[in-house]
């Protein structure tokens, strides 16, 4: 009995090592935007060093990657998939037991809304509401036309141009003196926020998260007082030809981590990590701001995250896995 008890820890360790080795080769989609490439690199490092996977990054994009997973079973993992873009295909893949939704890449989901700088709300808390904005419309002077107030909209051609425009109309912002200003591009839109912040000037407009901009600049999402009517949002707010009769806040966009069913079956411990790994928008905003300021790619951002946010990622894994990851970090 004494010899048996002594052998138990070694048997348990052997079992864990075997579970790690069963992970085998894992292909991870590395999408071509900063948050996705950061998460992909974090997953690669943790799966390789914490779970013994032979992890490999491959280029990816939303629709072709999702289609490839369903039809060919590769890649094994998509760390950040905006599933609304291929909702029907993903649901079909899950129903046919080809795919598994491991969890939420972003705990808050994708976030959209009308925003103002926090320094304005600090001065006047009513500016966190649409009624306060309308009452103080003259505060947001339009530099192109001082007789009107500026609402900075979404760039032309984007879906949010429709949704922001419909909410602008339904909230009767034109009647309050606002003009909907096209920023021209994503860079033009973020540039207006940067200039306002540098000069501590009023700003009111559309933006979304997670983004580097909301990591660099402290903004407050304006409350419409309407709540979220998802059915109306989908049936009318998103439809260009639908006359908007009511305003609604944006529903959260689902952003998931998706794997093949085969990967989930062969590597349950690694899959469990992916089901635990999730970022809030505030956390990702900060990381994206750091990437932009340091011109960091996904690999460099991964090292920054794992060394500076240990309390966050270590909660996603067991103590033994965390120890292996930290040992690997020390060798970098």
TrEMBL record:
The keyword Nucleotide-binding does not apply. Residues 1-19 form the signal peptide. InterPro entries: ABC_Gly_betaine_transp_sub-bd. GO terms for molecular function: transmembrane transporter activity. Residues 25-307 form the ABC-type glycine betaine transport system substrate-binding domain. The keyword Signal applies. One of its GO terms (cellular component) is ATP-binding cassette (ABC) transporter complex. It holds the Pfam family OpuAC. CDD domains: PBP2_HisX_like. Keywords: Signal. This is ABC transporter substrate-binding protein.
């Amino acid at each position: 009995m004494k010899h048996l008890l002594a052998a138990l820890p070694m048997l348990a360790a052997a079992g864990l090592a075997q579970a790690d080795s069963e992970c085998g080769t894992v292909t991870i989609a590395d999408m071509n935007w900063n948050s996705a490439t950061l998460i992909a690199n974090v997953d690669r490092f943790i799966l390789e060093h914490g779970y013994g996977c032979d992890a490999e990054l491959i280029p990816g994009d939303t629709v072709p990657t999702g289609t490839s997973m369903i039809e060919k079973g590769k890649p094994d993992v998509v760390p950040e998939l905006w599933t609304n873009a291929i909702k029907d295909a993903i649901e079909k893949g899950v129903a046919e037991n080809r795919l598994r939704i491991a969890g939420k890449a972003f705990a808050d989901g994708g976030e959209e809304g009308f925003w103002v700088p926090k320094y304005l709300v600090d001065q006047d808390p009513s500016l966190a509401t649409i009624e306060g904005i309308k009452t103080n419309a003259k505060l947001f002077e339009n530099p192109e036309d001082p007789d009107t107030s500026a609402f900075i909209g979404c760039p032309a051609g984007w879906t949010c141009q429709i949704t922001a425009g419909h909410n602008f109309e339904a909230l009767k912002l034109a009647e309050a003196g606002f003009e909907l200003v096209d920023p021209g591009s994503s860079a033009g839109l973020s540039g207006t926020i940067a200039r306002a912040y540098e000069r501590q000037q009023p700003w009111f407009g559309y933006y979304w998260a997670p983004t580097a901009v909301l990591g660099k600049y402290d903004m407050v999402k304006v409350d419409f007082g309407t709540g979220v009517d998802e059915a109306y949002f989908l049936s009318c707010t998103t439809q260009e030809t639908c006359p908007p009769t009511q305003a609604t806040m944006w529903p959260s966009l689902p952003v998931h981590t998706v794997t093949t069913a085969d990967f989930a079956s062969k590597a349950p411990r690694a899959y469990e990590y992916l089901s635990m790994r999730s970022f809030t928008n505030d956390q990702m905003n900060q990381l994206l701001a750091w990437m932009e300021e340091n011109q960091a790619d996904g690999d460099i951002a991964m090292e920054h995250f794992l060394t500076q946010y240990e309390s966050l990622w270590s909660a996603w894994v067991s103590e033994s896995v965390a120890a292996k990851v930290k040992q690997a970090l020390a060798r970098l």
